[in-house]
């Protein structure tokens, strides 16, 4: 008859301690002998749960592989059709965008212009201007570079070094081809420096010199007025401050320039008129769209539309009379009521020839007369 083992808590702890002790001894022996700890242990059988998990994972992997491998021809054709459709749509959008940016599209008319949120016409003009400016810059840079290379490599006989004297009396040198530009710039510098040095605002001038400058200006203006003929109101003299109005347009005295200015002014007026007509058409179009949306909403909510008379397209809200037609009479009555309701202010301080006691009684009587009878004390208070 086998003896049944009786276990308690202390015996379990002793068994655990003995097991850990044996493991440490085995680890030390394997380290001294140079044998790995994995080779010492005997490989046991896998647990039942691990077996089932491995079988389940293998079945799922096999099922996924079959579902990926087996794809019907109909699904492949559908995928190819959707891919081709999306590609065709993107190509059409790209072509439309390029056509709108180039400015050659017919869709950019007055009616369809508000549909697009991008001003393609302005972008096209800006792009064309940018490209042309880049081309001009490249051409100019190429010409300059080629000219610099040619002059540095083989200087021509005509482009010799010459000497000239500037406005300050200095002797300078430059190329013969650049002499005219340098002389014109030097002349402008000399005129500007002379004007700056003899400015009428300088503090180094005496009163006689300022008077002489003013006399010269008057003589110059008189000569110009004599050559010009009758003085026009736009030709002010002696720096006279004059406001000509916001609608004033200063036309040139030259006939050709004046005709060009008139042409530009008429073109601007025509553009303004066309813009107003376009805005009116857009407003009418928006109004029609809003009425259509309102009609659909009323139909959806089963609301009957207001009946209109024959020959009347829309309800004229401006013809409805306002309730304040007799505004003058009402304002007069209101003023009379305000005058009646207005109370005269009575000061509690004594006036001329009046004592403080009399002023107090007068103020009390005034307040009692203005008091609401509902808030007055009972009448028997005043019987005595």
The helix/strand series, from N terminus to C terminus, equals HHHHHEEHHHHH
Q: Which class of secondary structure composition applies to the elements?
A: mainly alpha
Q: What shape does the CA trace take? A: extended
Instruction: Please give the number of β-strands.
Output: 2
β-strand percent reads under 5%
Count of helical regions: 10
Assign a percent range to the helix content: 55-70%
Rg over CA atoms: 53 Å
N-to-C span: 130 Å
Mean pLDDT: 73
Described by strand count, sense and barrel closure, the largest sheet is:
2 strands, antiparallel
Low-confidence stretches: 141-158, 316-325
Strand order of the largest sheet: 1-2
Biased composition (Basic and acidic residues): 331-340, 351-373
Pfam family, one: DUF4078
InterPro entries: CCDC174-like (IPR025066), CCDC174_GRSR (IPR057464)
Keywords: Coiled coil
Features:
about 375 residues, mainly alpha, two-stranded antiparallel sheet
Topology:
Blueprint lengths: L8 H25 L3 H4 L7 H22 L3 H30 L17 H34 L7 E5 L5 E5 L3 H19 L9 H22 L26 H46 L26 H15 L14 H15 L14
Antiparallel strand pairs: 1-2
């Amino acid at each position: 008859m086998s003896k049944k083992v009786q276990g308690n808590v202390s015996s379990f702890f002793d068994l655990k301690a003995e097991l850990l002790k044996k493991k440490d001894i085995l680890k030390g022996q394997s380290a001294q002998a140079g044998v790995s700890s994995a080779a010492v242990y005997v490989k046991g059988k896998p647990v039942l749960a691990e077996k089932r998990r491995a079988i389940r994972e293998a079945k799922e992997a096999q099922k996924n592989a079959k579902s990926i491998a087996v794809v019907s021809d109909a699904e492949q054709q559908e995928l190819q059709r959707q891919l081709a459709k999306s590609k065709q749509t993107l190509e059409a959008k790209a072509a439309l965008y390029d056509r709108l940016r180039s400015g050659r599209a017919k869709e950019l008319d007055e009616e369809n212009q508000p549909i697009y949120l991008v001003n393609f016409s302005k972008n096209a003009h800006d792009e064309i201007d940018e490209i042309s400016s880049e081309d001009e810059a490249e051409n100019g840079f190429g010409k300059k570079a080629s000219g610099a290379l040619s002059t540095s490599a083989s200087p021509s006989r005509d482009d010799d070094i010459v000497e000239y004297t500037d406005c300050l009396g200095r002797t300078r040198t430059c190329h013969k081809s650049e002499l005219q530009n340098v002389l014109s710039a030097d002349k402008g510098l000399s005129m500007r420096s002379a004007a700056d040095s003899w400015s009428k605002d300088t503090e180094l001038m005496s009163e006689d010199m300022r008077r002489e400058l003013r006399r010269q200006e008057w003589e110059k203006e008189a000569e110009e007025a004599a050559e010009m003929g009758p003085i026009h109101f736009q030709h002010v003299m002696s720096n006279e401050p004059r406001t000509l109005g916001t609608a004033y347009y200063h036309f040139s005295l030259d006939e050709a320039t004046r005709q060009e200015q008139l042409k530009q002014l008429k073109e601007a007026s025509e553009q303004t008129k066309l813009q107003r007509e376009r805005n009116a058409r857009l407003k009418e179009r928006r109004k029609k769209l809003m009425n259509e949306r309102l009609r659909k909403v009323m139909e959806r909510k089963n609301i009957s539309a207001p009946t209109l008379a024959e020959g009347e397209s829309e309800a004229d809200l401006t013809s409805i009379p306002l309730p304040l037609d007799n505004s003058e009479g009402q304002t007069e009555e209101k003023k009379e009521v305000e005058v009646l309701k207005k109370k005269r202010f009575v000061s509690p301080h004594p006036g001329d020839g009046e004592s403080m006691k009399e002023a107090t009684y007068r103020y009390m009587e005034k307040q009692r007369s203005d008091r609401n009878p509902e808030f007055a004390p009972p009448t028997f208070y005043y019987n005595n």
